[in-house]
Amino acid sequence: MPAPESAPPDTPPPVPADPLRMAPLTLPGDRELVLRVMPLPADLNANGDIFGGWIMAQVDLAGAVLPSRIARGRIATVAVNQFVFKQAVSLGDLLSFYARIQRVGKTSVTVHVEVFAERNPADLQVVKVTEASITYVAIDREGKPRPLPAR
Questions:
Q1: CB 3.0 to 4.6 Å from 11: which of 7, 20, 116, 134, for a disulfide?
Q2: 59-85 pLDDT per residue, tens
Q3: What domain count does the chain have?
C-alpha cells in the first residue's frame, strides 16, 4: 500500500477502514505516534472536562520520547516554548500524541507535539485538541547539561 501524501499541519490523521485500528501508527511526513491514552474519571476538572494540567503532563511524557532516543541517556524538560489548548478533551476521548523534531542543538532538542482526540466511535470524529513546542536538554549524572552524542 503506497504511503499517503503529506497533509496540512491542522489536518487530523486519516482514519483507516479497519474498525479495530481507529488511528494510524504514523502520520505522513515527519510526525511519529509516541503515545496513545484514554483519560479516566479521576482526570476531570470541576467543569467535567479533562484537567489541562493532566494533558500537559501527558504532552511532556510524549514529547520526551524522541529526544530520549537522540540523547541516549538522561534528559530534562528545560522549556515549554508554546502550549495551545484548541478544544476541550472529554471523558471517553482517545488521545493520540504525535511528535516531530523541530531543532537539535549541542545539548538540547526541541520537539513539536500534536494531540488528536478520537471521539464518538459510532460516528467517529478526529480533532486536534492540543499542540505544544517543548525543549529538552541532555543531562549527566549530576544534572548538568551534556553534549548530545554524534548522530
A1: 7
A2: 999 999 999 999 999 999 999 999 999
A3: 1
